[in-house]
Design brief:
Oligomer: single chain
Shape: elongated
Bound molecules: zinc ion
Order of helices and strands: EEHEEHHE
Number of strands: 5
Strand content: 5-15%
Strand order of the largest sheet: 3-4-5
Length: 103
């Protein structure tokens, strides 16, 4: 499945490769290849999404333990994959301010 690159929020060119979008999805700072702006995934939405990731683990592990069954762990993998797709495809990028040297 080929995906077209994601647009940079600063220069609006499709410069962000899937690999970079994935790095942003794991809290890495990436850089636009066109305008050089440093970008990161939206911090507030990322916090919310990671809260859901950990809630899914907690719920599925408890459910697996409660029913002595591995089925909820399969659900956990399915839900994590869905959350990853949402994170990589739909998480908006945010431009970071240029680093200015301190005097
Ligand atoms: Zn750019």
């Amino acid at each position: 499945m080929a995906m077209k690159p994601f647009p940079c929020p600063k220069c609006h060119q499709d410069t962000i490769a899937l690999k970079d979008k994935y790095l942003a999805a794991i809290w890495m700072v990436i850089r636009c290849g066109n305008c050089g702006t440093r970008l990161c995934a939206h911090p507030l939405l990322m916090t919310l999404l990671y809260f859901i990731y950990f809630w899914v683990i907690a719920a599925c592990v408890f459910w697996a333990w409660y029913h002595r069954s591995a089925t909820p762990l399969i659900w956990m993998l399915v839900l994590w994959t869905l959350l990853d797709i949402i994170n990589i495809r739909y998480m908006p990028l945010k431009a970071l301010r240029a680093q200015t040297p301190k005097v």
